[in-house]
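pls design
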């Protein structure tokens, strides 16, 4: 029921005239934090999942099963609507269908499929490239078909604005709209002119990622039919640096309890659902409630 409620909330947001920021979620703890802080949507980037699960860079070595497992870990504990970066769908259109089915089962609120040529092909040129318009449309149709009567949302994504031109991005988004997707995801839009042109040319709700600071104006974004936005996954980088510095400090002699920035017990109790587990222990294990 938690999954369907999250999807219902996302459907409602997309049909509204509001624009809200997305949390960057990558594990159960970050999922719980996003919910506790009242985020109305969260983005799980494939790059960050690769970092967390594999300790690897974003070079498309993460598998669908690994992604789906991590999604399930997050949706099991948190109720914030989770938008999943499905990358290229892990292969061709048939692989896209499998991707949608697995992420639907894992509890995603939305899955985005992109038209970038992934993984990187053999050769000296590492410039990002797009797959053909025909193949892109086929992937979107396959994603919608695989969704079936589920309440999962499907977003079509193109990086054409930065890889080719705004005109190409508009052409692809218009083609995606005809396939039955529920929204359009834009990464890498850098200027208001780009955003204005694209939003004026399409009718579906927009989601944008990597929004530069000058464009991070909720009222302006909302006026351009954007319902969710993200400025990036720097929160993860902050967490990595904090962990590194804490472990380094202990290695150099700091006693763990003397570290700066230790989370209060109340916060740890909240994000680990301690009260719920204590209640279940009393109800089913006969455990006594600790006094004090």
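designed seq:
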């Amino acid at each position: 029921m938690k999954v369907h409620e999250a999807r219902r909330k996302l459907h409602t947001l997309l049909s509204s005239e509001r624009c809200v920021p997305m949390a960057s979620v990558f594990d159960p703890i970050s999922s719980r934090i996003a919910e506790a802080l009242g985020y109305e949507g969260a983005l799980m980037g494939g790059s960050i999942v690769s970092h967390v699960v594999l300790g690897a860079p974003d070079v498309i070595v993460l598998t669908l099963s690994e992604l789906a497992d991590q999604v399930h870990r997050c949706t099991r504990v948190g109720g914030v609507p989770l938008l999943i970066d499905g990358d290229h769908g892990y292969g061709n259109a048939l692989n896209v269908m499998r991707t949608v089915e697995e992420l639907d089962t894992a509890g995603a609120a939305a899955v985005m499929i992109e038209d970038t040529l992934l993984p990187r092909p053999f050769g000296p040129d590492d410039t990002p490239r797009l797959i053909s318009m025909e193949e892109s449309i086929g992937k979107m149709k396959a994603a919608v078909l695989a969704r079936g009567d589920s309440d999962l949302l499907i977003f079509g994504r193109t990086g054409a604005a930065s890889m080719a031109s705004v005109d190409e991005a508009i052409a692809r988004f218009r083609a995606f709209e005809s396939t039955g997707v529920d929204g359009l995801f834009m990464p890498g839009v850098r200027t208001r002119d780009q955003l204005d042109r694209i939003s004026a040319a399409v009718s579906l709700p927009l989601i944008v990622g990597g929004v530069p600071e000058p464009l991070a104006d909720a009222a302006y974004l909302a006026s351009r039919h954007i319902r969710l936005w993200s400025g990036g996954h720097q929160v993860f980088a902050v967490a990595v640096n904090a962990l590194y510095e804490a472990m380094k400090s202990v290695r150099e002699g700091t006693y763990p309890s003397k570290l700066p920035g230790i989370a209060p017990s109340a916060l740890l109790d909240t994000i680990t659902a301690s009260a719920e587990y204590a209640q279940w222990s009393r109800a089913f294990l006969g455990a006594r409630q600790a006094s004090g």
